[in-house]
Description:
Helix content is 53%, strand content 15%. With 459 residues, it is of the alpha+beta class. The radius of gyration is 47 Å and the shape is rod-shaped.
Amino acid sequence: MRDRRRQHGASDPCGPPPKRRSAVWWYLTSRLQRRLFFAFGAVILVTGLVASVVTGLLSERGGWRAQRVRLERFAGARFAEVWHDPGDRARLAASVADELRMRVELRDTAGATLLLRAPVGVAATRCPRPTLRARVAAPGGAVVGEARFCSVDPSWGGGRTALLVLAVLAVIWRMAGGIARRMARPLDDLVEVVRDIGDGRLDRRARLPTHGRSELGLLARVVNDMAARIEAQVAAQRELLAAVSHELRSPLARVRFLLETARDDGADAGARAAAISEVEDELVGIDALVGDLLASSRMDFQALQRVRLDATEVASRALSKAGVDLAALDAPDEVLTIVGDATLLTTALVNLIGNAQRHGGGVRALRVRRVGSLVRFEVEDPGGGIPDDELPRIFEPFYRGAGAGRRAGAGLGLALVRRIAASHGGEVWAANLSGGGGACVGFSVACEAQSAGVASPQR
């Protein structure tokens, strides 16, 4: 019980009090999309910071800082060559200013400005914050002055840097939000669909185009298939409940009437015997209906007991249970081994035999044959056959032909035969016989080549 309370989030009175979470924490973790959003945003931001740090470390070792030092040394050496010639010094400063598009300021050792040069169209002003500072040294190594270089184009400044940071954050926000929404939205849709199905809206389906062929698409298809199967099963159960309720109510009412007739003091012995006989017939029909329902339920719950069986013994058992002479059995001398549920296979054969007795005037033959990897069971009757327009529908649930009488049943017998055959790897069929008339209705079961250890159906 304690573990169950913990699984449902309930506090344990014997354990430590649960850790309280702040409102911000619950907001960030309450929805999958928010969690994914902040997770991806943090990953992108940390990746950018790490890349910046690594770039800075590499730059200090041999990147732009080293190049800047080399540029300063080069500029200092060039101005050292013409430092004592004012004309050459001025021409070199003008050339550097135009080529590099930078203001050039030359100072002596005392800090006094010796020369100012700027690109064409730019005012020549001093450089209080130079981009480059090159010391000018004489051949003996003594410092004779300094060359300062200032960029003419406006620098980024604090405002532009802030705008750049905001732009980067906006891109991260957009990317993280798009990834999180794309990953979480299909899951949210599936959660809503499953919740609606749990609430009884069995017609709800997940939108497959939204999920595509990904794992979420596979999950959506599985959910849709599950919902379709549940909807079909619930509809079939409702239809079955309505049909069974009707089929049980009618014979029970008739049994009540017959019992009242049998208890009537004025009824003679013959009338009472006939009433009791009809009661027995009605009870047999009710018992058969309940048996079909139990067999159907066993397949619904996958409660099949598969063993190796002799097909001839299964057919003999069905004939004996249906009260038909074993001389009607037409089977080979060899053992035909099948793997299946003895009770269900016997029920299927009994239903075929009962259908032939009710609608075909009896059983002419029960044939057992092996065809390839299947064993075929066929029941032939001497009746007038099945109308051609009813042949495709006789295995449908609750279908009863136009000539069905009061005791035709609920229309579940042949439908159950089809389900039993499908659960044993076979199929069903029905056809009218040529020549002598009658009909042939049967089903097949997957067989097994070996015959050792064959089990007999329980009697």
